[in-house]
Structures are given as C-alpha cells and as structure tokens.
C-alpha cells in the first residue's frame, strides 16, 4: 500500500505547526479541512432546520442531512438508512438504547421470542467504556437482572468464560468492538454467535473502532451498534445508533417532543415512523453534515488502508516503548488486532507527571483511566498513559514520544 502521508497530513489544519505530535486520537480525532468546510458551508450558506420548511435553504439542509444518514448506513453496511438514529454521540446512543430496550419489554423475551426462557442476566465485558457500562449497571439495578463480566485474558477477552456466562437466561450481551485503552479488536462475531444461539440481544460499542476497523453490522451479525462522530474526524456532538429493523420496529421511544410524533391530540400522541420516532427535537444538523464529509474522507483513503498503516505505527511504538527501561506496554501486541491504541505505565513516574513532561515537548497524550476503571482494575493499575494513533501520525511522532519519555525518565530517576 502506498500512503502519501504528507498529502494526508496537509488535510489537517491543526498539524500545520512543526514539532506538534498529536497522539490523542482515541480521545478525539483531528478534523480534516473538508469536514470543517462542510460544516462552515452549512452555517454560512444554507442554515435552516430540517424536515420542516420549503424554502431552498431548508430543502438543501434536509437533503444534505439525509444524505449523511445514508452515508452512515453504507459506512456500517446497514440494510437501510431507516435503521440509523442520529444522536449526540456514543454516550447518548448507549443511554437511549438501554432505556428503550427496557421500556419496550424486549429484554424479557430476548432478541428471539421463540426462545422462551426467563431472562435473568446481562453479560458485558471488563473492557467497557463507562458510557456503555454505567447505563448497564443502572439497568441491572432497575430490572434486577444480574450483570456479569467476561474477564480479560491477556489484553483480549476470555472467550471460554464468555461461553459459560452467556446462557439461555441472558437477555442482553453488550460488548466493545475495540478497546480505547488496550486497542484490542474483539471477536464480536464469536460473541454474537454465542448470544444468538440463546436468543439474547447483542449490542456493540464501536466508538474506538470507527474509522480504524471496517464496520459491517451484517457480517458481525449483531442487533445494535453505536459510535461517536468525533472519534472518526466528524465534529463533536453527533453520533450514530444503528438498530436492526426487526428489533427497532418493536421498540418504544424513551424521549419525547417535536419531530418524533405523527400527530398529537389532547389525550395522547402517535409516533412518527422509524427512525424519526427516536429523534425528538432538533439534532446537530451541521455536525451530521460534517459526519457525512468525514465518512467521505475516510472512504477516500479506505478504512482497511488506515488500519494497515496505523497498525504499523502502533507496532513500532510498542517495540520502541518496551526498549525503555521501566516502561511496560499494556496493549494488544498483535498490531493487526490493535485499533491504534498503545497504553503504558512507567515505574519511574505517575501517568499524569509523564503526560506533563511530554506536553512540554508538544507530544499530546492522555493520562488517567480513560473512562475504563473496571479495565484498569483488571490490569491491576490505577491509571495509564495512552498514545493513540490515526492516519496522520508518523514514526517521527513515535520517536518524539520516546525521546520525551527518556527525558522524563532522566528527570524522575
Ligand atoms: C470505546 C468508547 N466508547 C464510548 C465512548 C464515549 O464517547 P462520547 O464521549 O463521544 O459519547 C468513548 C469515548 O472515549 C470510547 O472511547
């Protein structure tokens, strides 16, 4: 594969200053000019609300917004754009989904009403981000379903234990596709297969995977999947929740207001068709149009190509970091199974101190638990320093990270 890295870097205005090493894409990715332009154009030229008025700006806004929904559907190989719900991000997607699954009563029957057992548990993993995990914990408390965790095995999941945990009593299986801490790309197909054999619903958090791993909901054979735009080059404040049509049609909305109704009378309301019935109020229209442009950008380069390129950088980073005395890498070492995230700990300094020294050298990393405290507990550390890579990073960025880390080691030792 030839990857014209200079051409790619030129697309990102924030990379214009020399000596800046942005290694925090797992927190939020940088934005290509094409996305900024698409959003700018909306606000300058045709700002209007969607699905309502008939003047030309409103028609253009609606067309571009719906075009972005269709692009999102194609991006994940959904059967149709009707299955795409526009949200404010992964956190809102996860909360909407959990609430609506609960309130619609489908958890009792699982995904498959022909498998009639009493559902008693939710199965998730030790790897989840808080935005997936905390709504599940709250759901478990409200419904008295028991929350069970597939444990870590090395930096991946223990599939043998998963097999035992997922039983005919399982209502829901919620699994992260790629970890935002270890980078591990999980075998979601395998988990989905286990879950569907017992009629459980399968939900996937694809936030750290989007833009790094080709997303194909049909191949994964899952029931719902969500992600945030801002981790895949779109603006902040917009995200996608995909739910397979047969399940989506059974779900009741959990948020109410304008746009999600077909009619309202004094004694009640009727809901709009899917997906609008799950989209109460005005959404982030400019953000969604930006998400469409971000998908175009990712597809021009090719997500497979991005993964191949980023894997090489991640692999180089792991080798270099492990050559520094006192540094331990806590990440999936098989770079092909890593979505570009390399977390590490240093025995000579706390992650926050490390990050501060690196910041002085314009190396941007993130210290902390990365909203994955259960995962950190399983790794037996309180916090890590995380370097995360995307298509605009280079081996020079890794060299700068390593040089700065050597400096930190000298200072603290
Ligand atoms: C794996 C994963 N899931 C979910 C989220 C939540 O995304 P947001 O904060 O955009 O809602 C994040 C953000 O860090 C993430 O990395």
TrEMBL record:
Keywords: Pyridoxal phosphate, Transferase. Residues 21-401 form the Aminotransferase class V domain. InterPro entries: Aminotrans_V_dom (IPR000192), Aminotrans_V_PyrdxlP_BS (IPR020578), Cys_dSase_SufS (IPR010970), Cysteine_dSase (IPR016454), PyrdxlP-dep_Trfase (IPR015424), PyrdxlP-dep_Trfase_major (IPR015421), PyrdxlP-dep_Trfase_small (IPR015422). It catalyses: (sulfur carrier)-H + L-cysteine = (sulfur carrier)-SH + L-alanine. One of its GO terms (biological process) is cysteine metabolic process. It comes from the Bacteria. CDD domains: SufS_like. Its cofactor is pyridoxal 5'-phosphate. Its EC number is 2.8.1.7. SUPFAM superfamilies: PLP-dependent transferases. One of its GO terms (molecular function) is pyridoxal phosphate binding. Belongs to the class-V pyridoxal-phosphate-dependent aminotransferase family. Csd subfamily. This is cysteine desulfurase.
């Amino acid at each position: 594969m030839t990857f014209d890295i200079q051409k790619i870097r030129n697309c990102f205005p924030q990379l214009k200053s020399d000596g800046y090493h942005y290694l925090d894409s797992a927190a939020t990715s940088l934005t290509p000019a094409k996305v900024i332009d698409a959003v700018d154009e909306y606000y300058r030229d045709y700002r209007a609300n969607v699905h309502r008025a008939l003047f030309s700006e409103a028609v253009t806004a609606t067309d571009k917004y719906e075009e972005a929904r269709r692009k999102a559907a194609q991006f994940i190989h959904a059967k149709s754009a009707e299955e795409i719900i526009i949200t404010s991000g992964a956190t809102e997607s996860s909360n909407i989904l959990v609430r609506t699954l609960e309130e619609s009563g489908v958890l009792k029957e699982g995904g498959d009403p022909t498998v009639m057992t009493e559902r008693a548990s939710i199965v998730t993993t030790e790897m989840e981000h808080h935005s997936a995990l905390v709504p599940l914990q709250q759901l478990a408390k409200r419904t008295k379903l028991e929350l069970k965790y597939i444990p870590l095995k090395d930096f991946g999941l223990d599939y043998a234990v998963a097999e035992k945990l997922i039983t005919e009593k399982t209502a829901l299986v919620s699994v992260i596709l790629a970890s935002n801490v270890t980078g591990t790309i999980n075998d979601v197909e395998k988990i989905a297969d286990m879950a569907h054999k017992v009629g459980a619903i399968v939900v996937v958090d694809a936030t750290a995977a989007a833009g790094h791993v080709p997303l194909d909901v049909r191949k994964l054979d899952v029931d719902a999947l969500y992600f945030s735009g801002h981790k895949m080059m779109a603006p902040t404040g917009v995200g996608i929740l995909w739910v397979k049509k047969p399940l989506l049609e059974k779900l009741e909305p959990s948020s109410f207001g304008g746009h999600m109704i077909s009619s309202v009378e004094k004694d009640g309301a009727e809901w709009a068709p899917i997906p609008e019935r799950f989209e109460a109020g005005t959404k982030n229209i400019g953000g969604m149009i930006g998400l469409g442009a971000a998908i175009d950008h990712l597809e021009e380069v090719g997500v497979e190509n991005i993964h191949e390129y980023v894997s090489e950088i991640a692999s180089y980073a792991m080798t270099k970091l492990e050559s520094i005395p006192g540094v331990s890498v806590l990440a999936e070492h098989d770079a092909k199974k890593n979505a570009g995230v390399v977390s590490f700990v240093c025995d000579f300094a706390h992650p926050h101190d490390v990050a501060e020294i690196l910041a002085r050298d314009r190396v941007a990393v993130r210290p902390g638990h990365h909203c994955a405290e259960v995962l950190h507990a399983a790794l037996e550390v309180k916090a890590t320093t995380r370097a995360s890579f995307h298509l605009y990073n280079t081996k020079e960025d890794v060299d700068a990270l390593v040089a700065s880390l050597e400096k930190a080691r000298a200072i603290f030792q």
